[in-house]
Amino acid sequence: MESKRQQKHAKLLQKELGEIFQKEAKHLVGKAMITVTRVFVSPDLSVAKVYLSFLLADSQAIYELIQEHKKEIRHYLAKRIGKSVRIIPELAFFPDDSAAYAQHMDQVISNLDIPPATEEDEEEDN
């Protein structure tokens, strides 16, 4: 269970990292749209797990590029929040596959062959 302090810090990081990917790091990601879906912060606020979702690009290539430029992204973050936090957390980026998983589950559910209810089943429900 995250403390209020961790949640507040995570929300700040999520907002600022989203803006960094839209503005400062545009030269890294090009036309790709990157969404910061979730951020989890360690209890001592020194490490942040950042989950990213990618649109309009090869997600694996963009993810690797972000991993290579992790220090640069952390530097942009330090410029933005350096005066309001004591420690700029180390960033650990992870791809967020929840949208792809949801799409897969939608497809599985739509492909299910469910026979229609018989009259006896309908009478039992009432």
From TrEMBL:
<comment type="subunit">
    <text>Monomer. Binds 30S ribosomal subunits, but not 50S ribosomal subunits or 70S ribosomes.</text>
</comment>
<keyword id="KW-0963">Cytoplasm</keyword>
<dbReference type="InterPro" id="IPR000238">
    <property type="entry name" value="RbfA"/>
</dbReference>
<dbReference type="InterPro" id="IPR015946">
    <property type="entry name" value="KH_dom-like_a/b"/>
</dbReference>
<comment type="similarity">
    <text>Belongs to the RbfA family.</text>
</comment>
<dbReference type="Pfam" id="PF02033">
    <property type="entry name" value="RBFA"/>
</dbReference>
<dbReference type="InterPro" id="IPR023799">
    <property type="entry name" value="RbfA_dom_sf"/>
</dbReference>
<keyword id="KW-0690">Ribosome biogenesis</keyword>
<comment type="function">
    <text>One of several proteins that assist in the late maturation steps of the functional core of the 30S ribosomal subunit. Associates with free 30S ribosomal subunits (but not with 30S subunits that are part of 70S ribosomes or polysomes). Required for efficient processing of 16S rRNA. May interact with the 5'-terminal helix region of 16S rRNA.</text>
</comment>
<protein>
    <recommendedName>
        <fullName>Ribosome-binding factor A</fullName>
    </recommendedName>
</protein>
